[in-house]
Amino acid sequence: MHGGNLRRAQELYGLDSFIDLSANINPFGPPTGVWESIQQGMADIVNYPDPESRVLISTLSNHLEIPTDSIMVGNGAGDLIFTVVQALKPKKVAIPIPTFSEYERAARSVGAEVSYILFGPEGWAKYNPLGGQSDNSEDKSSGVDQQWREFLKGCDLLFLCSPHNPTGSQISIDLFERLLRLTKELGCRILFDESFLDFLSDELRHSARTYLETNDHLIVLYSLTKFYSLPGLRLGAVFADKSLLARFDQYRDPWSVNVLAQHAGSASLEDMKFPEDVRVKLRESRTLFYREFAQSSFSHLKLWPTTVNFALIEVLDHTSADLIQHLGRQGILVRDCSSFTGLTGDFIRVAIKGVLAMQRLLEGFKTYYFKEEQ
Predict the structure, then answer these.
(1) Is 188 exposed, middle or buried (0-12, 13-18, 19+ CB in 10 A)?
(2) pLDDT tens per residue, range 178-206
């Protein structure tokens, strides 16, 4: 169901190590200060962690310019999704598909009815308005509004994800503001997941959290796991009106964030040079990968555009399972997208990692299709 299962890959392919492109984690590791902070935190493992995570929340508040009483932290974004849904107990939710499976799992756990919004491999590009590019742009925007009104009929919670997983697409500011107004009118809350926001370049990084003050029906989900490379520690945050957070607090494990995660999270956010260093390296890898992929002219593969650290690839005229197994035998793991509801056809998702890793993937594609042509 999820990427990053190295133990299973070792059993399946008989190898000890892999280039893991199946999980969308920053490949360059956490900020250097994290290792020292964990060593210091080891002395605290004999005590219960601070249930209010005050130091971490204060650091988040300073880093993201959000009031401390609008922040709650948890054991990763997945933990917080379930906490929010358990607290709200929605009767009917709307979920764009394909997307992260935990949205639906959380909704089903409280018996909610699920209504799907079909994105397909285009992602947000399917619904983003044209922004006044033509004479009838107002009519098109109005049509988009009507579509979403139909999608949200009877719903009391809408899951949104931008940058969107697995397509790597991003919602336009215009459409997001329209959805804010529409959901407020309909009495529908939004759980907006921006776990991959930090991977975006400066000009594309528009956070939903800037709308919190005037939209008390908006809940924003944030992850430190992916960008700061802390998947083994699990760390996420949710931002919302303090009255909503008080409600969520009744449904969370008070010790869900362990002492090492609290230390590591604060140290990660305090490294001001780290974010841009990561973005520069990933931009170099993404540029190389897209350029060499295009030059290789893989007739059986379609690479969909992305703005973040992963990309969706459609496998044409072949089965993705064969390609996945071929790459696995070469020590390269990619994400099998067959479990993503709403993707018709064969798809894989690949994380954008270091230059050498992307070159290995390209070579893996070449050896597979060279074999097929013989």
Answers:
(1) buried
(2) 999 999 999 999 999 999 999 998 888 99
Q: Which long-range contacts (CB under 8 A, 24 or more apart) does 133-142 make?
A: 141/174, 141/178
The predicted model scores a pTM of 0.92
Nearest to 87 by CA among 240, 257, 302: 240
User: Distance from first CA to last CA of the chain, Å, rounded?
Assistant: 34
**E-strand stretches of the chain:** 19-21, 71-74, 92-97, 113-118, 157-161, 189-193, 218-223, 236-239, 301-303, 310-315, 332-336, 346-351
Domains parsed from the chain with CATH numbers: 6-29+274-373 (3.90.1150.10), 33-270 (3.40.640.10)
Strand partners, 92: 113
Q: Both tokens of residue 135?
A: 């004479």
Strand partners, 72: 238
CB atoms closer than 10 angstroms to residue 15: 15
